[in-house]
Amino acid sequence: MKKLLAALAVGTLALAGCSSGTDSANDDTFTVGMECGYQPFNWQTSDAQTDSAVEISGGGGYCDGYDVMMSQAIADELGQKLEVKKISWDGLQPALDSGEIDAIVAGMTASDEREEGIDFTTPYYESEGMVMIVRADSEMAGYTDIQDFSGHKVIGQKNTNYDTVIDQIEGVDHQTPLATYPELVAALQNGVADGITAEMPVAEGVVAANPGLAIVQFAEGHGFDVDTTVSIGLKEGTRDSDFFKSVQDALDSISQDTRNEYMKTAVENAPTEE
């Protein structure tokens, strides 16, 4: 869903001979990497506030959210214990390459470019599309076409499709992307940006936590042209392995109704700011 552009350069830095994350097929742990900072897909808390929260490997609290729920369901199907590692977005592919993690479950969109360094499963979620988050008291809250944002300051997350889609707006004041989503929200609230791009589940979580913000949905045919599916990333070259097939089979066993229920629960449980 999020993040169509990979930082391909990081893939070239990984050693081709590193051990494969598929070693997990031979032990009792399914180790996944995610940011733990991208609600409702994944977020961090100091304690286990829900039954779905999993302690972050190495300490630092707990990680929760849709990605954690999906990862837990897959681990259960594999008969393995789930381990969650908090890793920055740009560090996910190197961690996969090195064997530090077995899978990326972090709202990552598969693309031709990414397929050069990661083997992806079929999508595990697809959002309703890309929207814009704006200040609720601004005239932009009533916009219905992405081109209405021409001349406005719009910002997205670095190395993601949240950033690249902005150039579909003619004459937009495309701001320098930021590394994390909380930074984007702060930029919007502080007036550095007039709008920030998001997928609907993320936008719903942000607005729930920040009542002064609003979601702009675009009329049919007047929105962004972007892939909003997300897939699980496994190490390159493992597509024909037993481990890849077992993960794909485990994913296939999770019904669409269950996936939708997980997302509904994640949106409801995502932290809000009073």
UniProtKB/TrEMBL annotation:
InterPro entries: Solute-binding_3/MltF_N. It comes from the Bacteria. Pfam families: SBP_bac_3. Residues 29-264 form the Solute-binding protein family 3/N-terminal domain. Residues 1-25 form the signal peptide. Keywords: Signal. SUPFAM superfamilies: Periplasmic binding protein-like II. This is Polar amino acid transport system permease /substrate-binding protein. It comes from Faecalicoccus pleomorphus.
